[in-house]
């Protein structure tokens, strides 16, 4: 009997000696892989979705818990992760599990199988749509005469004509419209060939007739720029110089800046690229002027393709220069991004990113690494390809605080969900009227557009109470 007890005790000691290390290792996230005869550390996946309650699939197996969920004790390697929810499109993503690390997918946005399209302006007669950025106003066009232009207020959900049908300028032929971000001023250019005019509207007081400011213009400008904070100063950009207008006192300062081939406006500063490739920032009254860059050889090499550059300040004098021939330059390495064919760019302040595109490709420039106080021609910019399969991309818009990109390719609008591993997700949203623009309202997560029947329409991609749905992987 005593011998049996000793044998039994020895067996327990042996089992303990063998299993205890495995139990301890397991508690710290390690497992033994017999096929490899190796001990490796496990990883885990955490994911939540919007809406929540989606079924979770790992490879071909359905996980028992629904989102939000954690899948632990995963061997290192690649897995196909999926989400399924009734009435929503399936979502899948290939994830790489690394030892001792977590892959986190937070608020994965699940798109409905069919969006609820809300017709705001029926009738099927609208030909163009333009948003006054930073405001609640859209300019909706029905024809080419001023009486056929309307202002739609998305907050009040009402539409008003720019002028009445019998107003002084009702038959005024519109050639172009100038707007500025966050400004309620609008300048319309048009009229007959022998009597062209510039009319100034205040969208906050649309019932007041426009002001004729034609006398301030000696020629048609390349661009008109003004600050939303200013009620009087307008800068007219011409080839080689810039005129300053005081629209309140109806006065002009000709060639206020001369020898100029680039211009940008940011808050209280004007950014100027001289014909000699010197970069200056100045206050509007010219009382403060600071030279930012004057490298003769580098400047001549960088700014040689275009006659004029639009300048955008990103962060503490970190600048983007977009030329009229499609070249794109940044004020830090690698400096020249493209020599030609860039169709447009959009900046997202919350993520400190710029999206820029050609007709076939979309790229993202990430300025988050700029932590120095002085970033002009300093740190190296991070640029990544986001999409390479376009055929005729004409627009890119940031969505969900910079986590997604809405883009228009021909007449189709897509949502591109950006992931840190470069495996981005593309989903078709809607088809729109030929040759029209679309606009995204961040505060309500809604897309505005003219549908194929020429009606002003809105799609709410997600309920507005969920302000920042995003899918991101962090390890």
TrEMBL record:
UniProt entry keywords in alphabetical sequence: Membrane, Transmembrane, Transmembrane helix
Annotated PEGA domain residues: 43-102
Pfam families xrefs: PEGA (PF08308)
UniProt keyword annotation of Transmembrane helix present: yes
Regions crossing the membrane: 7-32
InterPro entries in alphabetical order: PEGA (IPR013229)
Protein name in UniProt: PEGA domain-containing protein
Organism whose genome encodes this protein: Candidatus Ghiorseimicrobium undicola
């Amino acid at each position: 009997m005593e011998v049996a007890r000793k044998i039994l005790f020895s067996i327990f000691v042996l089992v303990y000696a063998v299993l205890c290390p495995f139990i301890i290792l397991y508690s710290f996230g390690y497992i033994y892989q017999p096929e490899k005869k190796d001990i490796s550390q496990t990883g885990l996946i955490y994911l939540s979705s919007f809406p929540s309650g989606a079924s979770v699939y790992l490879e071909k197996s359905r996980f028992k818990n629904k989102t939000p969920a954690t899948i632990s004790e995963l061997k290192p390697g690649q897995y196909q992760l999926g989400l399924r929810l009734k009435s929503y499109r399936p979502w899948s993503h290939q994830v790489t599990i690394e030892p001792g690390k977590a892959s986190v997918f937070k608020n994965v946005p699940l798109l409905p199988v069919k969006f609820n399209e809300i017709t705001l302006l029926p009738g099927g007669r609208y030909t163009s749509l333009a948003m006054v950025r930073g405001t609640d106003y859209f300019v909706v066009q029905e024809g080419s005469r001023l009486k056929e232009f309307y202002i739609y207020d998305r907050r009040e959900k009402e539409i008003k004509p720019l002028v009445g049908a019998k107003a002084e300028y009702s038959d005024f032929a519109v050639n172009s419209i100038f707007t500025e971000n966050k400004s309620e001023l609008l300048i319309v250019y048009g009229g007959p060939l022998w009597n062209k005019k510039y009319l100034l509207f205040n969208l906050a007081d649309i019932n007041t007739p426009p002001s004729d400011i034609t006398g301030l213009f000696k020629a048609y400008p390349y661009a008109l720029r003004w600050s939303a904070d200013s009620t009087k100063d307008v800068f007219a950009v011409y080839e080689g110089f810039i005129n300053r207008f005081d629209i309140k006192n109806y006065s002009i300062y000709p060639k206020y800046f001369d020898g100029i081939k680039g211009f940008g406006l940011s808050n209280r500063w004007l950014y100027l690229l001289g014909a000699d490739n010197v970069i200056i920032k100045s206050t509007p009254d010219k009382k403060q002027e600071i030279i930012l860059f004057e490298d003769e050889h580098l400047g001549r090499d960088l700014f040689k393709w275009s006659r004029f550059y639009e300048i955008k300040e990103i962060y503490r004098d970190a600048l983007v220069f977009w030329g009229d021939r499609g070249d794109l330059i940044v004020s830090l390495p690698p400096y020249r991004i493209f020599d030609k064919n860039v169709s447009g760019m959009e900046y997202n302040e919350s993520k400190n990113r710029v999206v820029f595109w050609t007709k076939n490709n979309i790229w993202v420039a990430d300025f988050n690494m700029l932590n120095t106080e002085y970033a002009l021609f300093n740190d190296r910019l991070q640029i990544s390809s986001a999409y390479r399969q376009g055929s005729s991309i004409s627009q890119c818009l940031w969505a969900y605080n910079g986590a997604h990109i809405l883009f228009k390719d021909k007449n189709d609008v897509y949502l591109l969900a950006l992931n840190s591993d470069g495996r981005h997700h593309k989903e078709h949203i809607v088809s729109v009227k030929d040759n029209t623009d679309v606009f995204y309202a961040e505060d309500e997560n809604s897309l505005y557009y003219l549908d194929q029947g020429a009606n002003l329409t809105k799609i709410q991609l997600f309920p507005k109470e969920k302000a920042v749905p995003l899918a991101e992987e962090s390890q």
